[in-house]
UniProtKB/TrEMBL annotation:
<dbReference type="InterPro" id="IPR004254">
    <property type="entry name" value="AdipoR/HlyIII-related"/>
</dbReference>
<protein>
    <submittedName>
        <fullName>Uncharacterized protein</fullName>
    </submittedName>
</protein>
<dbReference type="Pfam" id="PF03006">
    <property type="entry name" value="HlyIII"/>
</dbReference>
<feature type="transmembrane region" description="Helical">
    <location>
        <begin position="103"/>
        <end position="124"/>
    </location>
</feature>
<keyword id="KW-0472">Membrane</keyword>
<keyword id="KW-0812">Transmembrane</keyword>
<keyword id="KW-0479">Metal-binding</keyword>
<dbReference type="GO" id="GO:0038023">
    <property type="term" value="F:signaling receptor activity"/>
</dbReference>
<feature type="binding site">
    <location>
        <position position="122"/>
    </location>
    <ligand>
        <name>Zn(2+)</name>
    </ligand>
</feature>
<comment type="similarity">
    <text>Belongs to the ADIPOR family.</text>
</comment>
<dbReference type="GO" id="GO:0016020">
    <property type="term" value="C:membrane"/>
</dbReference>
<keyword id="KW-1133">Transmembrane helix</keyword>
<keyword id="KW-0862">Zinc</keyword>
<dbReference type="GO" id="GO:0046872">
    <property type="term" value="F:metal ion binding"/>
</dbReference>
<feature type="transmembrane region" description="Helical">
    <location>
        <begin position="66"/>
        <end position="83"/>
    </location>
</feature>
């Protein structure tokens, strides 16, 4: 009896209390198939939002909150490192040449791009199936760019 009641509560959409606008969060069974990638996350799904509503969803808890904020904070840290390194004039003190410096700066930029592409995917994937596919491509390109930055920096120590 208790188990049946728990499953019935999961199927109901959850509406967070936001005074400016009510944005509805859905259970796993109530969202379209293209958003059903993890059956272990049962509630908190966003669906059919506009860009403005997606940006508003940054301030309330949903199934993408940790993905968005961890990458956003990480991108912010790397932006800080990037400008700190430019201000100091060199990325790390033990590099002998300026080409090493530019490779490290390129790596930092590639990580920033990778994280911001991931933020955009996790933030805007709930708009429509087309937006999901387009932002997934952007996310994968960002991952590729991050790998390229890692590879180029790794080449510094091989030579």
């Amino acid at each position: 009896m208790v188990r049946k009641r728990l499953y019935q509560e999961v199927d109901k959409p959850y509406t967070p209390e936001i005074k400016s606008k009510q944005v509805q969060l859905y259970s796993f069974e109530k969202i379209p198939e293209y958003l059903q990638s993890n059956p272990y996350i049962r509630t908190g799904y966003r669906h059919g939002l506009s860009i403005k509503d997606c940006l508003i969803s940054l301030v309330y808890l949903n199934n993408e909150t940790i993905n968005i904020w961890s990458h956003l904070i990480g991108a912010g840290l790397f932006v800080y490192f990037f400008f700190r390194d430019i201000y100091n004039g060199r990325a790390l003190p033990f590099f002998a040449s300026t080409s090493d410096y530019y490779f490290i700066l390129f790596y930092t930029v590639s990580v920033i791009i990778c994280m911001l592409c991931s933020v955009s995917f996790h933030l805007f994937n709930c708009i429509s199936p087309r937006a999901f596919a387009d932002f997934l491509k952007l996310d994968l390109c960002g991952i590729g760019f991050g790998i390229l930055g890692c590879y180029l920096c790794d080449d510094l120590y091989i030579i």
